[in-house]
TrEMBL record:
Residue ranges with Low complexity bias: 125-155
Assigned keywords, A-Z: Signal
Pfam families: DUF6134
Name recorded for this polypeptide: DUF3108 domain-containing protein
Length: 260
């Protein structure tokens, strides 16, 4: 599982078809920029087919030129009272402005450990990782140094002026074409489309929200192209705050994040 592309820097294990053009090009509210500058915390309840399976918390701190991000995900899928799937993920990121400068993460994907430790200079490499598991949790400057565990090895290079992780809290995420997956250390190609606004229930209240469809294509692993993965990002229309994520994972099951 990747915490909804852990993210949340992650959608893995989701089987999707081609992304369809969808979109209403409604601009984001200017107040969304203030959300990113101010930082803050986001504590999500995570459900699978409507049943609670855990939580995913994000904490953003510091000034824009020296920001830190910490995320912690804990999922337990149970059947008849027995845990049939266990997922743990913790990541720490260092940012300068809109650019990711460093990442350390540790994941226990149902007993399979994955460690990532990277620092980014002017360019960033793409990296390969193990084949995705059944769920996904849910973002390049000229050189990067770092390592992953033996399960996730570096393969290939590529870059642009700046790289983000799957930073759903950041308003500029919806303008990205490449995002770093904090669970695997790999760089995904992404397509992000604006969808029509809709209502969403958050903490017992119905909110008007903006929506985007994000389709991610991970790098080729061992010569076998990975399946595209897709999710829906929700932000409150009133202030741009990130309030939810939806993803259909393997088996047609629905994984959802809702802000508490």
């Amino acid at each position: 599982m990747r915490a909804i592309i852990v993210a949340v820097g992650s959608i893995s294990g989701a089987s999707v078809g081609a992304a369809t053009p969808g979109a209403e090009a409604t601009p984001e509210p200017r107040t969304a920029e203030a959300v990113a500058v101010a930082g803050g915390s986001w504590d999500f309840e995570v459900r699978l087919d409507g049943k609670p399976i855990g939580s995913h918390r994000f904490e953003v701190a510091g000034e824009p030129d020296a920001r830190t991000v910490r995320s912690v995900a804990r999922f337990d899928v149970k059947l008849l009272g027995l845990t049939v799937f266990r997922y743990r993920h913790e990541a720490r990121e260092r940012w300068r402005g809109d650019c990711l400068q460093g990442l350390q993460s540790r994941t226990d994907d149902d007993g399979k450990p994955i460690d990532v430790d990277k620092s980014f200079g002017p360019r960033v490499p793409s990296t390969a990782s193990p084949a995705p598991s059944t769920l996904t949790s849910p973002s390049a400057p000229p050189a990067a140094s770092g390592s992953t565990s033996p399960a996730a090895s570096t393969a290939g290079t590529g870059g642009s002026d700046c790289l983000m992780s799957y930073a759903y809290w950041h308003p500029a995420l919806v303008r990205q074409q490449r995002l770093l997956n904090p669970q695997t250390g790999e760089v995904d190609e992404v397509r992000i489309e604006r969808l029509p606004d809709a209502s969403i229930t958050v903490a017992g209240r119905e909110l008007e929200a903006m929506r985007w469809r994000l389709t991610a294509t991970p790098p080729v692993v061992a010569g076998k192209p990975a399946e595209r993965q897709q999710l829906t990002l929700w932000r409150a229309r009133s202030d741009g705050r990130w309030v939810g994520l939806d993803a259909v994972v393997k088996g047609g099951r629905m994984l959802t994040y809702r802000l508490r």
